[in-house]
Amino acid sequence: MDIKKVVIVGGGTAGWLAANHLGKALLNTEGVSVTLIESPDIPTIGVGEGTVPAIRKSLQSFGISETEFITQCDVTFKQSIKFSNWLNKDNHGSDNSFHHLFNIPSPLGGDLTPFWLNNRDYDYSNLVSPQFVACEALKAPKKITTPEYAGALGYAYHLNAAKFAKLLAKNGRDRFCVEHIIANVSEVKLNVSGAVGSLVTDTHGELVYDFYIDCTGFEALIIEKALKVPFVDKSAQLLVDRAIAVQVPTNINAPIPPFTIATAHQAGWIWDIALTNRRGVGFVYSTKYMDDETAISKLDKYLGGVLSDLSYRVLPMKVGYREKFWHQNCVCLGLAQGFLEPLEATSILLTDFAASYIANRFPKSVEQIQSIQPQFNQVMEYAWERVVEFIKLHYCLSDRTDSQFWIDNRDPSTIPDELKRRLSLWESYVPNREDFFSKFEVFDLDNYLYVLYGMKYHTQVKNLTNEQLHLANQQSLQIAKMGKQLAEELPDHRELLNKIKEHGLQSI
Predict the structure, then answer these.
(1) What is the pTM of this model?
(2) Which CATH superfamily is domain 5-74+157-231+319-381 in?
(3) pLDDT class of 478 with cuts at 50, 70, 90
(4) Which of 191, 350, 377, 446 has the fewest CB atoms nearer than 10 Å to its CB?
(5) For residue 46, what pLDDT is reported?
(6) Residue 52, annotated ligand binder?
(7) Active-site annotation holder among 24, 78, 142, 324
């Protein structure tokens, strides 16, 4: 049987990312339609405000103007995540920090990591990338004359998630002819084969489709409640399970950091994301090690005592992913697929990755599902496991001893086996490209280098020869010169955003 009618259940960032990917892929396929059903009563979670550089490729492929995106979604540029206090204050200072930058390390060729390991007095990210200086100077990654989606430095975005969903919705409807239905789905009916047969709605009656995309968030209306696909719990490895999220108004002239700030605390960490008119702040913690009252008090202290004047939400976090991501004639995406935690902006990343994958391999018939489904499930499980490992890396490398939370995060029983294997290898060898053999490594060599050595990981390497030391020193001086030049030439972050709002960027 041919697949002609495709439905996405649920809006928000996940639903409308899927609608744009599928709408674009299926637009010129005769007889095939894409519909999105969105509840009028369920608000967007709206705390997924950080992205990774891959989102630029998707937005450009959708035909969305970067100028329009920046001006309509309160966007700021994100060039890094700056991790503060993730290491022992006694050993590394009370203001210890490191950057996970978006530019490749050692851009002049070769690898400066062995040089750093022979002289660990340097800040790793400052040594290997000119982007460090630009970030610390609060510079934008491009100029007003730089074309859309291009930059002098690598970047992603911070954004208003609710406004982003609206922009994606408009683009999906107008450009890719996605039908938009406002309705509540009250029942999911299965057919005799156990696949999804129809949806019962409150305003449009019973609706029949051939293929279903579940973007209903934590409710997982189709994949869990109807199809009974189990959830793989990862809370034994990733210990945080709750977040307090708040939006903090800012002065329209306040400086804007071009990076996410992730500040570790006694039982987790705090995200701090600056948009053009506010900050999105979240206190992430483990209820095993900190009660809600203490968490609220500590967030209030971080914000300077203004929390009582603001509206905040306490959000439970069910950490893990689906046992299967594609079952029968249903694929789940977004929070219905799984959730780990906000560190490294993995939620939008995995949604975009999965939606793009399914759009590029969308089955023409029900019969084709049997050949495509197992591969999709295998790829997505691989991707999720690698993300679990990368997030855990930040915790298990910390040498903090000030609370049981950090001590327990180093317990080998909480560390995934593959991560333990890699860390054992990297005790003797600097990571290289061959260690990341799959193109489905969501985080690869560059990401690991910044985190491993930003957190002072000890890799035993041979002493460099005098010639090697000389060449590496010359290269580090050249990178420092590049960083100084970028800091002088690139505009102030807020200054560029104001210019974009007034003049726009050059379209490609």
Answers:
(1) 0.95
(2) FAD/NAD(P)-binding domain (3.50.50.60)
(3) very high
(4) 191
(5) 56
(6) no
(7) 78
